[in-house]
Amino acid sequence: MRTNFWCLILISVLLSSCDSNRVFDEYSTVPNTWNKDDVIVFNFETQDTIEAYNLFVNIRNNNDYKYSNLFLLVELNYPNGKSIKDTLEYLMAKPNGELLGTGFSDIKENKLWFKENFIFPEKGNFEINIQHAMRENGVVKGVENLEGITDIGFRVENSNSID
Questions:
Q1: Residue at 154 is within a domain
Q2: Is residue 11, in this structure, part of any structural domain at all?
Q3: Domain at 66, CATH number
Q4: Residue 7 has what pLDDT?
Q5: What is the 3-state secondary structure (H, E, C) of the chain?
Q6: Number of domains, the chain
Q7: Which pLDDT score is estimated for 2?
């Protein structure tokens, strides 16, 4: 049994290392709940101002996530100080309540589009800030502590990716 476990780990590592489209891919773990004031920050550097890239927000959630959608505030900060902030909505569950995403256990992973065929206008260090903006229906005040989100990630990949 232990040998099967290590074989599975080795295969996972080998498959993940074959991801030639990945330029940046990082996760941040959410402890217990995601507070509305907690901003998840990712920093990455690019030297390419010619090729197009796809940018993704990656979310891992479990069965404690009780909503059918997810609202996020995503801010892209440029090296020159310019900032672009988007409010994004993502579908997280089917109408019957079944969670969307990939995964064999109760943890599902969702690769959510942020920018498609994005060309970085300048070289340097970029910063991504991600914050949830969830609200209950009919309630003005936002959800203070969002349950069920286990990890937030950000990914940059070559736009010639087909997955």
A1: yes
A2: no
A3: 2.60.120
A4: 45
A5: CHHHHHHHHHHHHHHHHCCCCEEEEEEEECCCEEECCCCEEEEEEECCCCCCEEEEEEEEECCCCCCCEEEEEEEEECCCCCEEEEEEEEECECCCCCECCECCCCCEEEEEEEEEEECCCCCEEEEEEEEECCECCCCCCECCEEECEEEEEEEEEECCCCC
A6: 1
A7: 56
* Lowest mean per-residue pLDDT among 8-12, 54-58, 126-130: 8-12
Length of the chain: 163
Residue 86's pLDDT is 95
| pLDDT tens digits, one per residue of 29-39 | 998 899 999 99
The residue segments making up the domain with residue 62 are 21-158
Tokens read off for 35: 């507070």
- The whole-number pLDDT of residue 5 equals 52
pLDDT of residue 46 exceeding 90, the answer is yes
Q: Please report whether residue 57 resides in a domain.
A: yes
Q: What is the pLDDT of residue 103?
A: 86
| In a domain? residue 6 | no
Q: Tokens 């991801």 label which residue?
A: 19
Question: Across residues 116-125, what is the average pLDDT?
Answer: 96
Which tokens sit at 12? 């996972």
